[in-house]
């Protein structure tokens, strides 16, 4: 009889099922073959089934996965904890969370792995509250979570009501369990704090981490970028490069985004050189970030060059180019590109693409075109416009002086107008001297941000245009009474690789490639 080592079986099975899951085939024969050694039929070892389920989960091959489940039952493995956990993971990755819950409920005695599998499954399926509740239930059973459990449940906190409180409570558990030195847990906490806007907590955690690897640096750089601390992101990137930790494509995307937000064309070009040096030019997301960086830096020709040099173009790249044209004031080219792509059927427009198109219409003041594209979203593509699309159309109406139509659209849309919508509407009221609607817009803005002086000042200009000096004086009096002051204006000036902010602050942003 031939005895095969576990590592051999594991390695062979991974390669075998990795290929099998990409094809349409019956898995029964394969399992029967793997379970036969020198003519002696045996039950397939659990590692074979587990690896097969893992491959099916990664490729989301539902058909083969459920055949494995059926084979498990036939082979008497339905009560095996190890395999049940793998099944939960498979169903969760195939977005069949109800089936994952059913497998979990059928387990007689749960262990750490089975609890963690379902918590992870709920988290990746967007059921954050369910993951948090299951975690609390796990604690009641006296089964202690491990680092993987914490990573999953922290991810579940993001975007949840009271997410910051949950994150802080989990942080306490993590310290008690001694998992605070695990870099994956640290990264999850940094991400969670950053997503909740608590960048100071994220920075403190980063500073306390003794063994910082590239993953920890990436998390902190992303956290800075998400919270618009772009200068800090750039400085940390330079520090990471100095530590010789290497660079990932994800890092470069984040840094390019920071360069875009600061309109740092020179530094963006240096990052582009690093992209080429790493051989990552074919990465679609990097190409998109480069197009965005060049567009915001005012170099639309280099943005077009990046697009031309990318062999495999998709919706992401085309949308970035359309938005780039719109941002650089070349709206006609943006709309020509969009219409050409639709004619050639090279583009399937999504919500983001239509935002770019409506932005182009807005910048060019093309009201009729904007209305046409807005209506096409629903009639031609069955999409419901989101608040960004409504914001573009409302601004178009308002800029054209049709303030009543803009106000009607604000009332009819299925969203509450946000600060940006009211602010742009108030600016149009100032231009066209509409006191009534201007006062309404200013009142809404003051309710949203009571400490912001901008709506007071714009309202005062609305009154001044109509020579309503008593009202102007009243606005000034209210500002003085409430301690309002106009914030100082500022701008970036770049000289000798140093960016000067106003006349007080200066930030050096030299990226060493």
TrEMBL record:
Cross-referenced InterPro entries: E_motif (IPR046848), PPR_At4g14850-like_plant (IPR046960), PPR_rpt (IPR002885), TPR-like_helical_dom_sf (IPR011990)
PPR repeats: 111-145, 213-247, 314-349
Keywords tagged on the record: Repeat
Coiled-coil segments: none
Any one GO biological process: RNA modification
Segments crossing the lipid bilayer: none
The keyword Nucleotide-binding appears for this protein: no
Molecular function terms from GO: mRNA binding
Cited Pfam families: E_motif, PPR, PPR_2
Protein name: Pentatricopeptide repeat-containing protein At4g37170-like isoform X2
Organism per entry: Vigna radiata var. radiata (Mung bean)
Protein's gene: LOC106755245
